[in-house]
């Protein structure tokens, strides 16, 4: 079906008001949950074909993530959708005030390839929970997962309610010409700007979940063993193709040597070798070439090997990197960790402040003053103290960027709010109203109004 026709049918369907019923939303959330569970093997197979992602990683970072979101909304939908009573100010007495969470209408979700299920289906789930119709355009770069989501949705849901639209740049460009009630985009900052411009034509609000260079800082007061283990895990999960992966490492000079040894130890322990089933491959040739040219062999501390046929790049640490090196100019989005040492904690935070605001930041220390300075001084989407990545697994926390790493949040109640309009209603009594706001005005009325306001 042509995309204009699908959107038109969704608009007509939305007008029937059916998506506003909590029972309707729950029914479809339950249906999606059951379909994901019954199609689990299809989902695993597709992602394995796309970039060799293991069942373990697919379960923990994709499928269980989406299922948890569904469970969250099934449990909390009633309270999230309930009109919220708020106070009413003096001039509006006798009255009462309420805020209604209204579905926006027909929304567009554009997904990225690196966590194809999570980044496409989690926003879709939030859109459904909030009572919208939705068109989902997954990333064509992960072709098999895009087709798997198409089977999951298009064969089981009415197109006038939910539809996966397959395609690449041309199809996305066509979609962006249409008027949606919200666009939720996950991807690069470069394409985020294209989406934002297109949305502006229709005054469509956007959520932009973008990328950036997320630092990890390790000071001499850190538990180095724990820091090394958690940084290696967070960096090389999904072969570094994670938007919130630590992009680069800043380590205090006095512990640098010892810390690098520990990083190497954990890389070996986690068995990320070429035959390993737990190590994801690079998504395609283009990214493989982009990444391998970033490896300055003179600076390789560990790793540095790659195999084009298998799209394998070994976990690589580059030491003695300079802020001006090529690898420090753009988001890496692959398994290469540049390391810069520092002497002064405050100076290194000032260097981060010179860059675009990152999507995430991580500090490893047991020093409370350092924690306080990190939290207050830097601006970033979200992050962890003494861990990497895990903040986004807590659905009580909002997830999103700031500045060039994004606009808006989702997860848990923030996802629901992202796809809702907060409609304000003031209800007035029809009796007991003083006459002073109505003309004709007088000095007496003015003096009363001054007192009241
Ligand atoms: P991308 O920007 O290339 O693609 C994202 C989506 O945009 C895809 O669906 C694609 O079809 C579409 N697209 C690509 N070029 C387009 C164009 N010219 N016009 C219109 N649409 C276009 O991003 P990607 O390679 O899929 O993902 C990598 C980037 O996404 C990284 O920067 C990463 O940090 C970021 N990311 C952010 C998050 C987050 O939650 N903030 C999550 C994952 C990835």
Automatic annotation (TrEMBL):
Pfam families in the cross-refs: Aldedh (PF00171)
Keyword Membrane: no
Origin: domain of life: Bacteria
GO cellular component terms given for this protein: cytoplasm
GO-annotated molecular function: aldehyde dehydrogenase (NAD+) activity
Family: Belongs to the aldehyde dehydrogenase family.
Name used for this protein in its record: Aldehyde dehydrogenase
Organism, as annotated: Chryseobacterium pennipullorum
């Amino acid at each position: 079906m042509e995309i204009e026709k699908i959107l038109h049918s969704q608009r007509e369907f939305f007008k029937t008001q059916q998506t506003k019923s909590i029972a309707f939303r729950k029914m479809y959330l339950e249906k999606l949950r059951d379909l994901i569970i019954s199609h689990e093997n299809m989902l695993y197979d597709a992602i394995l074909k796309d970039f060799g992602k293991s069942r373990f990683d697919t379960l923990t970072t994709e499928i269980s993530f989406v299922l948890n979101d569904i469970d969250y909304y099934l449990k909390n939908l009633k309270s999230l959708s309930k009109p919220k009573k708020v106070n009413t100010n003096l001039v509006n007495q006798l009255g009462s005030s309420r805020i209604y969470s209204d579905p926006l209408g027909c929304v567009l979700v554009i997904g990225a390839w690196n966590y194809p299920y999570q980044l496409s289906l989690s926003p879709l789930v939030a859109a459904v929970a909030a009572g919208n119709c939705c068109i989902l355009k997954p990333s064509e770069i992960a072709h098999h997962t895009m087709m798997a989501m198409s089977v999951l949705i298009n064969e089981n849901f009415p197109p006038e309610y939910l539809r996966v639209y397959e395609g690449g740049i041309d199809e996305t460009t066509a979609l962006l010409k249409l008027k949606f009630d919200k666009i939720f985009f996950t991807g690069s900052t470069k394409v985020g700007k294209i989406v934002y411009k297109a949305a502006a034509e229709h005054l469509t609000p956007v959520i932009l979940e973008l990328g950036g260079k997320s630092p990890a800082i390790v000071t001499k007061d850190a538990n180095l063993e724990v820091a090394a283990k958690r940084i290696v895990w967070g960096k090389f999960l999904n072969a570094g193709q994670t938007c919130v992966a630590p992009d680069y490492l800043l380590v205090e000079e006095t512990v640098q040597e010892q810390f690098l040894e520990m990083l190497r130890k954990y890389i070996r322990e986690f068995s990320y070798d070429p035959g390993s089933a737990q190590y994801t491959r690079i998504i395609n040739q283009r990214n493989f070439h982009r990444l391998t040219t970033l490896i300055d062999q003179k600076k390789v501390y560990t790793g540095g090997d790659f195999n084009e046929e298998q799209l394998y790049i070994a976990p690589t640490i580059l030491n003695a990197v300079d802020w001006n090196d090529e690898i420090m100019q753009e988001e890496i989005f692959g398994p290469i960790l540049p390391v810069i040492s520092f002497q002064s904690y405050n100076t290194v935070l000032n260097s981060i402040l010179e860059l675009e605001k990152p999507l995430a930041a991580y500090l490893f220390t047991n020093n409370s003053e350092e924690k306080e300075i990190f939290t207050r001084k830097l601006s970033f989407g979200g992050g962890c103290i003494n861990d990497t990545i895990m903040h986004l697994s807590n659905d009580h926390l909002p997830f999103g960027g700031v500045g060039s790493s994004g606009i808006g949040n989702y997860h848990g109640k923030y996802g629901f709010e992202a796809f809702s309009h907060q409609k304000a209603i003031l209800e007035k009594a029809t009796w007991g109203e003083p006459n002073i706001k109505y003309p004709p005005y007088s000095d007496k009325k003015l003096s009363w109004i001054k007192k009241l306001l």
